What does this fold into?
Amino acid sequence: MPVTFGTEAEPSTQTVTFIDASGKLIAVVDHQGAVQVVPGELLSHATRMLFTLTLGTATAHYTVPYLAPVTPVR
It folds into this structure.
């Protein structure tokens, strides 16, 4: 059975970034959901998405593979 808990009373933030295989920052997702690519980089260089969740005094980091589209999307 899934467990849920309320976090309304705790200040929390989540950041999402795209990184390459060496850990170099490629892009950041802003608070409006737009992807801001670092100047001089291409989103296709990203290999992982890094999520950082801060809840009160606890911080969690997790990553997932990111596979860029192989064909341009227009």
